[in-house]
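Backbone shape codes:
***
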Amino acid sequence: MFKIKDILCSKVDEIRDFIINTGQEIFKNPELGFKEFNTLNLIKEIFDSLGLSYESEISVTGIKCKIGSGNGPNIGLIAELDGVPTLGHKYSGEDLGVAHSCGHSNQVAIMLGVIKSLVECNFFDKYDGSVTFIGTPAEEFTDLEYRSKLVEKNEIKYMSGKQDMIYKGVFDDVDLALSCHTMGSKAEPSADVNSSLNGFIHKIVKYHGKAAHAGACPHLGVNALNAAVIGLTAVNAQRETFIDDHNIRVHGIIKNGGHTVNTVPEEVEIEAYVRGNDIVSLLDANSRVNRAFEAGAYAVGGTIDIIDTNGYVPFKQDQKLSQLVKGNLSAFVKKDNLYDGVKSMASGDIGDLSVFLPTIQFGFSGFVGSVHGSDFDISDNDMAYIVPTKVILMTIVDLLGDNACKSNEIIDGFVPVMSREKYFEKWLKAND
């Protein structure tokens, strides 16, 4: 087993430039969710060069490529394709300032490096099982007006890539899933395993008042902006009631604060998230936030519409799978820089996948600046590209070696968070 790990790691060193150049090409040409057409074409070209068959244009821009065969487990490799609006980034695109300030470009390059290494080392000549590259669009929950149009045209049913691909059955033949993600700026080579992510509920809050001349007769109007300010203040008054262990976060922006300063604002719109680390506490916090927003409308005599969309499920990583990855990371990262069980307040649709499958997403360093910030950049190619590629390959060997006993132990011990029916009927009901 150690010999094949050495062979695969040597292959990664051999194709080092391919991995880094692929990542840099995607990093410099970011695209928003369900618009990753250039990224998709690049992936297809690479698969074509390796002589691989694939299914593409899944959920608009998704792609799936399976290698290997036999009766062994099928390991899913998750590669997120999209960027996020990031004004001022050196590679920001014209479409809402999109940039790869979350490191998804690295994910794609890493997973393509894994596939290329397995193919060129003829890995499946000796191992029973398979590995499936799944390029998932639209992880960032943004550009929702565009996505709503795709829903109207029946091109997608759900607003994130993994949610829509789960609905379409893309993961039905996958037994467990491996992913990785930047952990942000770290001074030394670092990594994390078994970290949690919050789930979230997306909110559109619309306050309705009555227009009137703001100078001559404001008493004849109903100020929707005042209602919004009171509502936001009431939300802030709820914060001390949130239990620390639930990791509740509430944050938002005012998208429309009125149309002219000379008129009492008659319509104000807020977009917000409520986040939490388990579904029960998240729903409870959301009901408190709604009550607070409603208080603003009541105070000024206006009305309010609140449109809630259930976003991503809280992410609970598979601990046994995480420990396998941790063991392989320890070959590259010092013990003090290898973190286990970090609680993150961020969210990702990898959480939705973990409802049904043993799933992990380890973190890795190699970046500077703030995640989702204009200063986000790659600082260490070894940590940002090469080490994660080797770790995933080594983990695949662990999972498929010895007649896949470790895979089978993980798969047999997995308990789904909820049934597929409950997930679609209860959690995603607000999206229908």
Notes: The longest helix spans residues 381-413. The first strand starts at residue 55 and ends at 58.
